Every structure is written in C-alpha cells, then in structure tokens.
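Incident log, structure service

09:12 report received: a user says their structure output differs between two submissions of the same chain.
09:20 pulled the input from the user's history:
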Amino acid sequence: GSGPSSGHCDKPVFSEFQPATNKYIQSLSEFSMVASSNTTPTSIEVNVSAGQNKYHFSHKELEIKPEANGRLGVFGKLLRPLGHGFVRISVTAHSKPGCEKTDGYLVRIQ
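09:34 re-ran on a clean worker, output below:
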C-alpha cells in the first residue's frame, strides 16, 4: 500500500469459544465462537490443527447465524472427531478489507 497506515481500525472481536480454552475434553467433533457485529460474515475462516492434521473451514463450510444483538454465532463440525492430544483452533476475519484479526486457543483432548 502507499501512504502511512494509521493502523487504527475496529477489528473483529471473537469470544465465547467452545470448547472452552484449556479444558479437558473427551473428543472434539464441533466447535463454536461468537464474532462481533462488525465482522464481515464472508471473511470468517477457521483452522483446526491437530498434530499433522490440519482442517480449514471457509465461511461456506461454517454455519454462521446472526444473533439478536447483531453478533454472529459461528459453528463448525469436523467430519471425524479428534481424540487425544492438543488441538489448536484459530479464527480469522475482517471488519473491512485490511482490518483483520486472528485469534485462537488450544484445547486439550484426553
């Protein structure tokens, strides 16, 4: 790009991650989170990595439901449940092009 970038923009905010961060769970077959109301729904992508296995979900493969307060519920389902080990779930989206946020967390499966 050209010119100085102000660097300020209202990036999406992600919250209410399920399964909860660092919680022990038996297996992982689905996940969800909430994106702030300024999030562009079609920009939402989720990556799930478990060791060598990486799963990418575009907005078309996620279920995105607007909530009453304007926020977006984001839901995803794995074809096969993941068992045992650490799984990293990360989500990326933008409020407008160039104003992107990535957030993620680890889930422990025992």
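09:41 both user submissions now match this output. Likely a transient worker issue. Closing.
09:42 reviewer note: The longest strand covers residues 85-96. The mean pLDDT is 91.
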